[in-house]
Design brief:
By secondary structure, the chain is α+β, with helices and mostly antiparallel strands. Helices cover 48% and strands 18% of the residues. Strand 2 and strand 3 form a beta hairpin. About 6% of the residues have low confidence.
Length: 202
C-alpha cells in the first residue's frame, strides 16, 4: 500500500496534485486546500503522506502534509456517512487541534461552518467525531512555510472561491485577516477568513 510519496511536482490545483517519483511513475493525489496552498512550485521536490482508498471507481490517493493530518482523516472516514470529501473539507477549514477541540466541546455550530455540513448534519456527527478524535486533543503544529503577502492573498482567495464563497465576500475577509495578522500563511488565512464569514452569518 502506498503510504508516502516523494518526487517532482508536475501539476497542482487547489484540490490536487500530480507527483512524478524517481522511478518514473506519476501519482495523482487529492488534497485539502491547506495542503494545496503549502505545495511548492511546479518542478520542485515535494513529499506527502498518503492514504489510499479503493472503491468501485478504482483507487484514489489522498495526500497530507503531516502524518497527524492523515491519521485524523482516517479516523474521520470511519464515521458513518462521513466520506473523504467531507473529511477533506473539514481539514481545509480547521487545523487538527482545532477540529479536536470542536469535537471535544461538542460544538456543532462551529462544525457547521464547513461547506456541505448543515446544522442537523453537524449535530448528528459531533458525538462520533468527539470519540474519533479523542486522541488528537493536543495541539498539532501547522506547516510554517510563509509566502509573500500578495501570494498568500491570491492563493487563499482562489481556495475560498473554489469552496463556493463569493469573491467579494472572501476578499474582504482575507484583507481584514491579513491586515490584522500580516504573517499568516495561506492555510491560516483561509481558516481565519472562514471563521470571519461564519461569524457574520451567525
Amino acid at each position: 500500500m502506498i503510504a508516502y510519496l516523494r518526487g517532482e511536482l508536475l501539476e497542482k490545483t487547489d484540490k490536487g496534485c500530480l507527483i512524478l517519483t524517481p522511478s518514473g511513475v506519476g501519482y495523482e493525489l487529492t488534497v485539502s486546500t491547506g495542503t494545496a496552498a503549502n505545495l511548492p512550485g511546479k518542478g520542485e521536490q515535494v513529499s506527502l503522506f498518503v492514504h489510499a482508498q479503493t472503491g468501485e471507481d478504482g483507487t484514489r490517493l489522498f495526500g497530507f502534509d503531516t502524518s497527524e493530518d492523515r491519521r485524523v482523516f482516517r479516523a474521520m472516514i470511519e464515521i458513518p456517512k462521513l466520506g473523504p470529501k467531507t473529511a477533506l473539507s473539514m481539514l481545509s477549514c480547521f487545523a487538527v487541534h482545532e477540529l479536536a477541540s470542536i469535537a471535544a466541546r461538542e460544538d456543532a455550530t462551529a462544525l457547521s461552518q464547513v461547506p456541505g455540513i448543515g446544522k442537523k448534519s453537524a449535530q448528528r456527527m459531533i458525538l462520533e467525531l468527539k470519540y474519533a478524535l479523542a486522541d488528537f486533543s493536543s495541539a498539532v503544529s501547522i506547516p510554517s512555510g510563509k509566502a509573500p503577502a500578495g501570494s498568500v492573498y491570491r492563493d487563499a482567495l482562489a481556495a475560498l472561491t473554489n469552496l463556493g464563497y463569493a469573491e467579494s465576500e472572501a476578499g474582504q475577509m482575507l484583507r481584514e485577516a491579513l491586515e490584522a495578522e500580516p504573517d499568516l500563511d495561506v492555510a491560516q488565512a483561509i481558516r481565519t477568513s472562514l471563521k470571519k464569514i461564519a461569524a457574520m452569518k451567525a
